[in-house]
Amino acid sequence: MNIGILSSAEKKGSEYYRYDERLIGEIEASGNEARVINHEKTYVGITEEGRVLYDSSDLTPINVDAVIPRLGRNVDMGLIVLKLLESQGVFTTSSSESIPRARNKLTTNIFLDKAGIPTPYSISPTGSNPKNLRDAFRMIQPDPKKEVIIKNLTGSHGKGVRTGESLKSAVSIADGMERRYMIQEFIGSPEPDIFASDIRLIVVDGNVVASMIRRCVEKDEFRSNLAQGAKAESYEPTPREVELALRATAALGLGVSGVDILLSNRGPLVNEVNTNPGFGIETYTQVNVAKSIIDFVIRNATEPITHQINN
Question: What's the pLDDT tens digit per position in 267-279?
């Protein structure tokens, strides 16, 4: 079986490159063939031959039986490549329709709320230079002296996420945002004198396969991402946390996800759902997440497909 990894990560030693290498290793260990498909170096063809994805280096057709989307840069074109592969009957761990739902944080919240899944309260302007911005902030945090979160609608690893210490500070930050953003309530630790933390659960094929808790190392830091210096350890999620992770993943239509849950005075809240979760969690849980993903692929694409590209 030929298993593709749809990724534009080419810088050796980079985080995403290492993640691709983990998947390649598990694919080869399973006795199958791995192929990295750089969606920035292909041609999407609709010709007399039918719908064909070509390698731009030699214009040979790219044929795979399954694909694992690991989209980083140029996501829009990556989704087009994925749509073409789907049209050929190629199995994918997450579809071209489900990935945009989770990639945009506002869209994610809409789908989660529709499914009855609790999230931090938020509001987002749909245009530039919005009117009544202060009133919009007050809808999320009525007390002008308390914190509020401002974050880009896309992004990961805690990048593009800032905290306004007050209404005045938050409005100033929002005025300087160059990208579309979301205003979100600040979720501090539900217990006094405990640093902020969140829970990351990896969901594969309808099952939570690994989970960890990430804690900030500084009291004034609110981002518990490992990339921002947080500390992590293995964690046994509660039945409620498992339920929310599975429901959130299903609501977005994903086969693989990383679900981030915040602990609050209102109970657990789903903060974000990542379509492209990293494998750093393996270090803390000793769970082979990459193998779980490859096993998922093999279960669902057990027979190599015949590429009838004219269908």
Answer: 999 999 999 999 9
pTM: 0.88
Tell me which residue range forms the domain holding 28: 2-93
Burial of 64 (0-12, 13-18, 19+ CB in 10 A): buried
Q: Burial-class residue 184 by CB neighbours within 10 Å (0-12, 13-18, 19+).
A: buried
Output the domain CATH number for residue 159.
3.30.1490.20
* Cβ–Cβ < 8 Å for 234, 215: no
Asked, for residue 223, whether it belongs to a domain, the answer is yes
Tell me: do 194 and 269 sit in the same domain.
yes
Task: Report the distance separating Cα 185 and Cα 122, nearest Å.
Answer: 6
Burial 243-268 (b: 16+ CB within 10 A, else e): ebbbbbbebbebbbbbbbbbbbeeeb
| Total domains present in the chain | 3
Residue labelled with tokens 């308390």: 146
Dist CA 289 CA 8 (whole Å): 21
What percent helix, strand, coil does the chain show, rounded to 5?
30, 25, 40
Does residue 105 sit in the same domain as residue 247?
yes
Identify the domain boundary among 130, 165, 186.
Answer: 186
Same domain, 235 and 101: yes
Instruction: Show the tokens assigned to 267.
Output: 């109970």
> Residue 250's closest CA among 188, 307, 207, 287?
207
Examine the fold and report which residue of 129, 163, 186 is the final residue of a domain before the chain moves on: 186
CA distance 129 to 200: 35
Mean pLDDT of 150-172: 86
